[in-house]
Amino acid sequence: MNFLYNLLLLKATILLPLLTIFNKKINLFVNGRKETFSKLNSISKKDKVIWFHAASLGEFEQGRPIIEELKQLYKNHKIVVTFFSPSGYEIRKNYALADVICYLPLDTKSIMQKFVAKIHPEIAIIIKYEFWPNLLSELKKQQINTILISGIFRNKQSFFKWHGGFMRSKLTTFKHFFVQNEDSKKLLASINLSNTTIAGDTRFDRVHEILQQDNSLDFITEFKNNRYTVVAGSTWKKDEKLLVYYINNHASTDEKFIIAPHNINQEQIKELQKAINKKTILYSEKETGNLSEKQVFIIDTIGLLTKIYSYADVAYVGGGLKTGLHNILEPATFGVPIVFGGHKYKKFKEATDLLALGSVTIVTNNEEFSSTFTTLKNDIDLRIKMGNTNHNYIKENIGATKIIMNYIKKTL
Fold first, then answer.
1. 11, 47, 129, 355: least surrounded by Cβ within 10 Å?
2. Phi and psi at residue 135, to the nearest 5°
3. Residue 293, SS3 per DSSP
4. By three-state DSSP, how is residue 194 classified?
């Protein structure tokens, strides 16, 4: 199995550069990794290093409360953050609290041996998942204290199958697993891994902290103009088709919409703007018109969505009709009722929890979308009830950061 894995990896190293001319994300993936070791040159053998690895942006946000605590407590340590995906790296590559931010190299034996030796962390903190076999083998070989935080395991994963011995063996690298739920702890116990603690999800700590920051945006205040506002965040084309149908056919003149697409593709954004038959303006055009007179505001930039959710009367969160539901905890912390599309949400515990509590609603077609948003607009008591349930759910689930930090402080 090890031979087959390394053979497939070799093929990937040959094929990926050939695909860069066809796909912008693959181009970033390949060329970004060319800079990894030059970025790591700022790490010397004498440095004390804490290393975090996140697959993408969502996992980074899970690690962020721990990073912030460690930066405050261990000022003489250097913090290294690596990403697997361009969608995480490109947004957080200038994050101020990390000393080095770079891509995780491809998981070959020779590269991982060099990589782990280069950063020589006192502790390696892997967020949620990303179980790269050669990386884990090298961390174990070089005796690096390695932990998993906000982990979540499912019985469909190869670790828990009869044929999963190769990947099961890699989990012995971890000194401790901080998992989100009881099911994950039981699954690990079923393969004789008992070094686990149910800590919950650090994202709850992160989004709860958001309430302490200044979330005001003057241009959103001007646009909203004290009117009922729907914020649609991280939308894909399928989400936007539902939104456009409702806006064009059912939205009243006193109803406002802010749409923040997941991918900032100017051609697609112009196409979206053209499809809407209400007064619409882009973020990039906001200086050219009276925002209060517009009914739809399309955010063609990144980094603003969290604060924008604070202005929502109702939030629609995208991804459920496409690759998987995006972050619903951010609107939830502001006490906002939430709607999302499709059925690709079951891997997200918060979605199933809130669905059971009745504070989120799923829509799959134009009729369900229109009916749901008409009801929510007209029923303020329902909005308040759903919003309060969401906010209380966040408050009831904070605390993972403290549990994890208590362990880390004993090891550093």
1. 11
2. -65, -50
3. helix
4. coil
Total length of the chain: 412
Q: In what order do the strands lie in the sheet with 280-282?
A: 280-282, 296-298, 255-261, 228-235, 314-317, 338-341, 360-363
Give just the sign of the alpha carbon dihedral 294, 386, 367, 348.
positive
DSSP 8-state symbol, 181:
S
The encoded tokens of residue 123 equal 């502790």
- Flag whether pLDDT at 313 surpasses 90: yes
- C-alpha 361/C-alpha 355 separation (Å) is 7
Query: How many CB atoms are located within 10 Å of the residue 169 CB?
Result: 16
Alpha-carbon separation of residue 23 from 15, 234, 236, 237 (angstroms): 13, 21, 18, 18
How far are the Cα atoms of 161, 180, 307 from residue 348, in angstroms, in the given order? 22, 11, 22
Q: Which residues pair with 149 in a beta bridge?
A: 127
Question: How far apart are alpha carbons 104 and 127 in whole angstroms?
Answer: 13
Please state, in angstroms and rounded to a whole number, the distance separating the CA atoms of residues 177 and 147. 6
Q: Rounded to whole angstroms, how far apart are CA atoms 350 and 389?
A: 12
- The confidence score (pLDDT) of residue 283 equals 96
DSSP helix/strand/coil, 235: strand
CA distance 112 to 98: 21
One-letter amino acid for residue 352 of the chain: T
d(CA 50, CA 120): 9
Q: Give 7's Cβ-side CA count (13 Å radius).
A: 4
Please give, one letter per residue, the 3-state secondary structure of 326-388. CCCHHHHHCCCCEEEECCCCCCCHHHHHHHHHCCEEEECCHHHHHHHHHHHHHCHHHHHHHHH
Percent of the chain beyond pLDDT 70? Answer: 100
